[in-house]
């Protein structure tokens, strides 16, 4: 069940199919041209930085990270369009375009690779209420995204029109595309315990799969063809939850053919690289759980990395360079510019750089 390598950051299940040249631009913030697809990447060209922005502040942004200078440039969206993006919940890089998902602004936007706006979709229900789109993935020439009205929608990248939608459950979040199916975390705003399966071609719901409590922000297609996701549990260690009822944050995987679910290890954030899963684990109320480690997906062996989770104010994600396997960990400082620390694959610190407000992920571009 080995998959082609082309996905983004090896996490949250974002697809990358690089096919054509980037529209040329005049400023230093623009990404370098798109590469042609190859079976395996040999060079990382850079990365898009997703800054969601502080809640209700509409101060999200999109940056390009330059590996040569080790810095993130200014806001691509603002530079190209003369206005701010609002919030930026998620970003899908697919074909020659970017697909920006904005929850509180309730819109989905198609962008050129340089951040120039191509088309904007205000996302409202038939009653005129905001749908609040959340996360995206791609496959079959389409981008699929969840929304808080309980739906998954399909955007055809050729016609640039939304061509289907299906109700999947209460507060759907992250999703992955594997073998013609969508696997969708149904968080239930903290009370859900299912992953919904959708036929991507017909946009019909196939079934629900029972999982641990609160599958949330991460669901990805692993390099081995399995679906990997994290359930956030019920804040184990909280004084309001009896110890016998604690549900820990847990990495699970689903066989996309049999729908069998396996519980693998404790995890808060994950990033996949081949047969390795890089993991941040941190139960807020249980400091002894805080660790960063590598989980071998074939043997189940756990190898701790010399990275102190407690050195971060609020660790918010982990990502892995698809070529070097350098590890990127975001520190989410509320109300201030965030930072991202970079380590080599063995966990040795390399450098740190500043980003925008409430940085939630990185999307690597490699050839």
What would the keywords be for this entry?
30 strands; mainly beta; four-stranded antiparallel beta sheet; Methylamine Dehydrogenase, Chain H; 367 residues; disordered N terminus; 47% strand; 1 helix; single chain
Overview of this protein structure:
This protein is 2% helix and 47% strand. A four-stranded antiparallel beta sheet has the order 5-4-3-30. The chain has a four-stranded antiparallel beta sheet with strand order 6-7-8-9. It has one helix at residues 76-81; strands at 7-8, 14-15, 44-51, 61-66, 71-72, 90-94, 97-102, 107-112, 117-122, 133-139, 142-147, 151-156, 161-167, 172-178, 181-186, 194-199, 204-210, 215-221, 227-231, 250-254, 261-266, 269-273, 276-281, 291-296, 302-304, 315-320, 327-331, 337-343, 349-357, 359-366. The protein has a single domain, classed as Methylamine Dehydrogenase, Chain H, CATH 2.130.10.10. By secondary structure, the protein is mainly beta.
Which helices and strands, and how do they pair?
Blueprint: E1 7-8, E2 14-15, E3 44-51, E4 61-66, E5 71-72, H1 76-81, E6 90-94, E7 97-102, E8 107-112, E9 117-122, E10 133-139, E11 142-147, E12 151-156, E13 161-167, E14 172-178, E15 181-186, E16 194-199, E17 204-210, E18 215-221, E19 227-231, E20 250-254, E21 261-266, E22 269-273, E23 276-281, E24 291-296, E25 302-304, E26 315-320, E27 327-331, E28 337-343, E29 349-357, E30 359-366
Antiparallel strand pairs: 1-2, 3-4, 3-30, 4-5, 6-7, 7-8, 8-9, 10-11, 11-12, 12-13, 14-15, 15-16, 16-17, 18-19, 19-20, 20-21, 22-23, 23-24, 24-25, 26-27, 27-28, 28-29
